[in-house]
């Protein structure tokens, strides 16, 4: 019997020692998966692969992009929240998946605040208000005056929910009235604007930049509270005389709820360094975005504010939960 207990104690010691070694093994111990809600080759894919090179150097493990596309990002978000909370699976969230869906998706299968640990924000993505170049409009004030002199006669294109919300917000604040024309995508709407069948629209910088350079459309303002570095001469909506206007999409990385604090902090440091590097800032400029890193705590508060803002924007735009 004594020999049995001795053997048992030895076994317990060996198991305990093995667990202790595993527990002390530094993160990460294997490749880190980043779940994106879009297809390969999308902006989320390109951004994650770019940042992943620097993050991999710092952490010593590769970043692997896994695509789980769906219209509103729900499939990717739900998959990510169910992953082991060890930092080896991250979710690339956006204003759609982590804020708008709270108000636009019925029976949402996840809670952006309760089910995730924020890692770091990486960008804010303003839109640009543009008009046809043949219209006698060179500022937002002139657009407002022109539209008010022709109530309901001007029209604008909408290719996605961001364009819809930002356009409705502009009308709500300025009091103008214009006809909404809906398209399947921003690129299609832009072609209609260039062809002269639309008067103005609010759209993504990458979509509109070639047409601005050609002189086919004229930029009046960006929708964010800060100017876009790649279009630094274009004022913000507030600078252009639209008080209280602030709309932009955004992107950030999240881990499943329960991920250890030290892992979250290590991931945050790696992503912040990648975003704030000279190469990172230049990369986001080329993407028509603004590099914007954060602490996990700052992303939490930002996320809460965005959920509250989307409640207001959904009401203003007349969007209905689906």
Automatic annotation (TrEMBL):
Q: At the top level of its lineage, which domain of life is listed?
A: Bacteria
| CDD domains membership | PBP2_Bug_TTT (cd07012)
Q: Does the keyword Signal apply?
A: yes
Q: Which InterPro entries match?
A: BUG (IPR005064), Bug_dom1 (IPR042100)
**What residue stretch is flagged as signal peptide?**
1-22
Alphabetic keyword roster? Signal
List, alphabetically, the Pfam families matched.
TctC
Cite the PANTHER family for this sequence: BLR1237 PROTEIN, TRICARBOXYLATE-BINDING PROTEIN
Could you say which protein family the record assigns here? Belongs to the UPF0065 (bug) family.
What protein is this chain from?
Tripartite tricarboxylate transporter substrate binding protein
Q: What is the lineage of its organism?
A: Bacteria, Pseudomonadati, Pseudomonadota, Betaproteobacteria, Burkholderiales
């Amino acid at each position: 019997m004594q020999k049995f207990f001795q053997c048992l104690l030895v076994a317990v010691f060996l198991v305990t020692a093995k667990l202790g070694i595993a527990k002390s093994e530094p993160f990460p111990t294997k490749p880190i998966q980043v779940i994106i809600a879009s297809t390969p080759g999308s902006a989320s894919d390109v951004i994650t692969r770019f940042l992943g090179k620097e993050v991999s150097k710092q952490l010593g493990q590769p970043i692997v992009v896994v695509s789980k596309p769906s219209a509103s990002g729900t499939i990717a978000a739900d998959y990510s929240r169910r992953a082991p909370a060890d930092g080896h699976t991250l979710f690339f969230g956006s204003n759609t998946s982590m804020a708008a869906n709270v108000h636009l998706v019925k029976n949402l299968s996840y809670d952006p605040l309760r089910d995730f640990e924020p890692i770091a924000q990486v960008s804010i993505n303003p839109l640009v208000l543009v008009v046809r170049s043949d219209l006698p409009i060179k500022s937002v004030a002139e657009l407002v005056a022109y539209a008010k002199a022709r109530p309901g006669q001007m029209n604008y294109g909408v290719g996605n929910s961001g364009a819809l919300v930002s356009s409705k917000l502009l009308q709500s604040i300025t009091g103008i009235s214009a006809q909404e024309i809906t398209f399947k995508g921003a690129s299609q709407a832009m072609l209609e604007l260039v062809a002269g069948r639309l008067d103005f629209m609010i759209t993504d910088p990458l979509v509109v930049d070639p047409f601005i350079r050609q002189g086919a459309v004229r930029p009046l303002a960006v929708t964010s509270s800060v100017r876009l570095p790649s279009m630094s001469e274009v004022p913000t909506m507030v600078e252009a005389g639209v008080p209280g206007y602030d709309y932009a999409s955004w992107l950030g990385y999240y881990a499943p709820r329960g991920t250890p604090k030290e892992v979250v902090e290590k991931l945050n440091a790696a992503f912040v360094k990648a975003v704030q590097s000279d190469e990172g800032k230049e990369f986001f400029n080329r993407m028509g975005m603004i590099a914007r890193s954060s602490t996990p705590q700052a992303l939490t508060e930002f996320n809460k504010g965005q959920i509250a803002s989307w409640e207001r924007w959904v009401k203003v735009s007349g969007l209905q939960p689906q």
